[in-house]
Amino acid sequence: MDDTGDVVYEDFDDNDILALEAADRHDAETEDTDVIYGVDKKTLQPGTPVYQLRITCSNETIFAVYNGPELKPGTAVLVPTRYGRDLARLSGKVCGRTMSSISKITRIERVATDIDIEKEKINKGKEEEAFKICKQKILDRNMEMKLIAAHFLIEESKIIFFFTAESRVDFRGLVKDLVAIFKSRIELRQIGIRDEARITGGLGLCGRAFCCHAISDKLKPVAIKMAKEQNLSLNSMKISGPCGRLLCCLAYEYGFYAEQRSTMPNEGTKITSGGTLWKITEVNAVCGMITISSEDGRLQRLSKDSFEKVDNHWVIRK
Question: Could you give the CA distance from residue 95 to residue 79 in angstroms, rounded to a whole number?
Fold first, then answer.
């Protein structure tokens, strides 16, 4: 199992355990469209408001429509999720063109009531207790898995336990223990290491909240070449996040650096100007500045606009 997938094991009664296939992480590419599809397999007209929601338990974002008055950011709503019917918070209304597939649009059932909000607060305390109990059971059984979080659904008698593990885990005994204690449906959901960071949150090396937790739940592929393109140290300790994987921000910023570098010569390029041979020693894509040095040790910093490509060779404009 890779970091972008998750495997679910759910108990439907005291004896049966169902293994579900790895869940789709919604990474299929779709085309831009002014018409959004996906709600009851019908077409929504361009004027239909579409909202972005954040699922509380997993910190994922989903898109939904609502048949009612316009909703304000921060509003708690009841919506069907892949975990079951649960509360989600409104991030805001989607503006402009939307990329969406049939599986990505749902419908808000209703705005959360005061009773729902109070139940959510009560569940927070129950989740802390359930987490402790499950963690102790894991220790008692000496199981190779790390418990991440526990969550009680608002309108379903089901408890979800998120965990990570190096490989597939046989926890039929654990499920039976939990069913006996909580007298409820139990779902154990195996997630990846990067998903763990998205759910738990925290502060990154920059001192700001994790990108995957505070900005976007879409875990983009990150490659070491992105760090090279940005002239960053290839020391894994410096370009890896607390999750132990390459920083998400490398992917977010890669497009800018790739575009900038395509209009600038590379380090090591040699240019003759004014009868002197110069060598490019530093390229600063952010500032658009290039440092060159001569054979006699002179240094100059020039704007990228000072360079142009002529017959496939870089020259300094006169």
Answer: 21
Do the Cβ atoms of 163 and 188 come closer than 8 Å?
yes
Neighbours of 216 (CB within 10 A): 13
* DSSP3 helix / strand / coil % (the chain, rounded to 5): 25, 35, 40
If you write DSSP's letter for every residue of 144-163 in order, what string do you get?
S-EEEEEEE-SSSSEEEEEE
Question: What whole-number distance in Å separates Cα of residue 172 and Cα of residue 161?
Answer: 14
pTM comes to 0.68
Burial class (CB in 10 A: 0-12, 13-18, 19+), 272: exposed
* Of residues 82, 75, 61, the one with CA closest to residue 6: 82
pLDDT one-digit tens code per residue, 69-106: 889 999 999 998 888 889 999 988 877 655 544 447 88
Domain extent listing, the chain:
7-23+117-194, 36-115, 220-262, 270-316
CB environment 228-251: b (16+ within 10 A), e (fewer): ebbeeeeeeeebbbebebbbbbbb
Question: pLDDT (tens digit, 9 = 90+) per residue, 251-265?
Answer: 888 888 888 888 888
Secondary structure, 3-state, 2-42:
CCCCCEEEEECCCCCEEECCCCCCCCCCCCCECCEEEECCE
Angle ∠(123,125,130) on CA atoms, nearest 5? 85
User: Where are the extended beta strands (E) located within the chain?
Assistant: 7-11, 17-19, 36-39, 42-44, 50-55, 61-65, 76-81, 84-93, 105-107, 110-111, 146-152, 158-164, 185-190, 270-273, 276-284, 289-294, 299-303, 307-310, 313-316
